[in-house]
Amino acid sequence: MADKFILSDEEWSKRLTPDEYRVLRHHGTERPGSGCFLGTKTPGTYVCAGCGNPLFKSGEKFESGTGWPSFTQPLQADAVTEYQDRSYGMLRTEVRCGRCDGHLGHVFPDGPPPTGLRYCMNSVAMKHVPEGQPIQLVTK
């Protein structure tokens, strides 16, 4: 993975849309069923909307029925990091971008084989790079 991508809160607020900023930098979420990638089946790679870090291949995406795009596993182990999340009186595992630490969503142990995991992501936290197009990391 590329080096960590670190910006000040002010720099992030200037680079991201208001929705991207709310989700990626302030651990927000989008309403279920509202994300632009919910029904997307186009082959390619999902990358972090904040820094361009490759996160998930389209072949790992599945219909979970939860209202958010779901994946069985990240592209590589260090593409994401996981943290214990005790917000809202629940115990969940938060998923963040391994490069810029942006909030992506949560992972749950109720996914399909072979991993049994459901990476439940916010569409606004990702961008889709169609298969065959280059992935470009965001730089300062």
Automatic annotation (TrEMBL):
GO terms for MF: peptide-methionine (R)-S-oxide reductase activity; zinc ion binding
Entry keyword annotation includes Calcium: no
Identification of the protein by name: Peptide methionine sulfoxide reductase MsrB
Organism: Archangium gephyra
Domain MsrB: residue ranges: 9-131
GO cellular component terms given for this protein: cytoplasm
Catalysed reaction, written as an equation: L-methionyl-[protein] + [thioredoxin]-disulfide + H2O = L-methionyl-(R)-S-oxide-[protein] + [thioredoxin]-dithiol
Family membership: Belongs to the MsrB Met sulfoxide reductase family.
Residues forming the catalytic site: C120 (nucleophile)
Binding of Zn(2+), residues: C48, C51, C97, C100
Enzyme Commission designation: 1.8.4.12
KW Metal-binding (keyword) present: yes
